[in-house]
Amino acid sequence: MLEVRNIYKSFGSLDVLKDISLTIGKGEIVAIVGPSGAGKTTLLQIMGTLELPDRGSVCFNGTELIGMKDKKLSAFRNRNMGFVFQFHQLLPEFTAQENVALPALIAGMSRSKAMAKAKELLGQLGLAERLHHKPAAMSGGERQRTAIARALVNDPEIIFADEPTGSLDSANREEIQSIFADLRDRLGQTVVMVTHDASLAGIADRVIEMADGRILNTEN
Ligand code: ADP
Ligand code: MG
């Protein structure tokens, strides 16, 4: 589904990614692990086209994404990719339901349909009682589940998650973990996650270890 080849990325004189190649198959959960500063977030952002590599190719179902025009790329990303960040990045002035509906509205869905879809997803994630809450009125776990619902609203082909349990306590970590496992088992959802959380990495079909801008287990 997603193939990145020979990715290089530097920030100034700092070489952050050094010839990274990997392929993500449909329905896989792939975990990227490794020490802080290894380049995991940079790689995830490049795979999700939020950041451009200096060199290399990012190919999604046969379509080369590097070099695609901004507007076309944003539309492509909105339709095909979902993102979950360590810090939820929900919009504070909007309710949970509105936050989840937003990417669907951007994709051109009517407000009533988008709000209905958001309600359904939040219900599936155990947040039926939190539709009208703003992020500040929700717990960390609830905010992160809302962010997962937002990532799912356009039925993305792939979800990218950067340390999705990084700011949660252990009960909430387990909950997020079971949500990702369930998404794979029930929907065949493809997920690429960066994590320090060994038990979250434990649900992955494949673990990619990075250090110093390279993939260590290159058979992956
Ligand atoms: P990880 O997620 O594995 O901790 P990152 O991909 O966030 O690693 O960062 C890898 C290295 O690149 C770090 O040394 C970080 O400081 C540096 N870096 C990341 N983003 C930028 C940026 N926008 N500008 C300059 N340096 C950056
Ligand atoms: Mg990181």
Cα gyration radius (Å): 17 Å
- Spatial sequence of strands, sheet with the most strands: 6-7-8-3-9-10
What order do the helices and strands follow?
A: EEEHEEHEHHHEHEHEE
Strand residues, percent = 25-35%
Unreliable stretches covering 5 or more consecutive residues = none
Structural class per helix/strand content? alpha/beta
- End-to-end separation in angstroms reads 15 Å
Number of helices: 7
Structure characterization notes:
With 220 residues, this protein is an alpha/beta fold. Helices cover 36% and strands 25% of the residues. It contains seven helices and ten strands. It has helices at 40-47, 70-80, 96-106, 111-124, 140-152, 170-187, 198-201, and strands at residues 2-11, 14-24, 29-33, 55-60, 63-64, 81-84, 158-162, 190-194, 206-211, 214-215. A six-stranded mixed sheet has the order 6-7-8-3-9-10. Strand 1 and strand 2 (14-24) form a beta hairpin. It is globular and about 45 Å long. It starts with a strand and ends in a 5-residue tail after the last strand. The mean pLDDT is 94. Adenosine-5'-diphosphate binds at residues 11, 14, 16, 36-42. Magnesium ion (MG) is lined by residues 40-41, 194.
What layout of secondary structure does this protein have?
Layout (H helix, E strand, L loop, with lengths): L1 E10 L2 E11 L4 E5 L6 H8 L7 E6 L2 E2 L5 H11 E4 L11 H11 L4 H14 L15 H13 L5 E5 L7 H18 L2 E5 L3 H4 L4 E6 L2 E2 L5
The protein binds adenosine-5'-diphosphate and magnesium ion.
